[in-house]
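Worked Example 4.2. Consider the chain below.
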Amino acid sequence: MPILLHIETATDICSVALSQDTEILSLRESKGKNEHASMLATYISEVACQAHISLQEIDAIVFGKGPGSYTGLRIGVSTAKGLCYAIGKPLIAISPLQAMATQASLYCKEHSFHQQALFCPMIDAGRMEVYAAIYNQLGQEIRAVQADIVDTQIYAEYLNQHELIFIGNGSSKCKETLANCKNAVFFEDFHTSAAYMLSLGLEAYNKKDFVNLAYFEPFYLKDFIAGKSIVKGLHS
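Applying the procedure from the previous section yields the following structure tokens:
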């Protein structure tokens, strides 16, 4: 029964979970902005302490590889890789979008509704843009991850034939735009979480689907563009 540490930092939510086999042992997460650097190491220590498990007992670390916040992903991957090197354990990288879709599918099955729906998890990418993909009830990718500019036609191909369930912190951008579409369904407050990574992480661990620690980089999807400094004297 593998013990896995899950780290999710692709959005404003900083989330850490510890699992054993198919059970979440402990979970810590914060929805405050810019708290990854200050809280991530603390959360890792707290989940291990709550579960009475030392970090040396962990079998692998599961990391939400992106896309998402450049800064959040950099902090998350640095922490995950550093810990892997320190304790000599492998790193597993999974998509936070797929993790959300898998959890939403499980929720629908447990409550016996939206049985034929597709899932469109979204991560806010700024302005009217989102990082999104589309998955079926089995968690299989129907449309690959891409950066979408939200408008009335962007998901028409899928909405014409299926219920499409929108989840994640980018989904609010679609709600007003698709308000008149009967096949558009929105799950409120369904966001990225380390707790949603369990099944994908466990599947990858059993397959020994590990990334190369030396060369692994998060899936940014877009290049980082630094904002102009507002500190006096740092710009002309």
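The two ends are 58 Å apart (CA to CA). The longest helix spans residues 70-87. Compare this with Example 4.1 before moving on.
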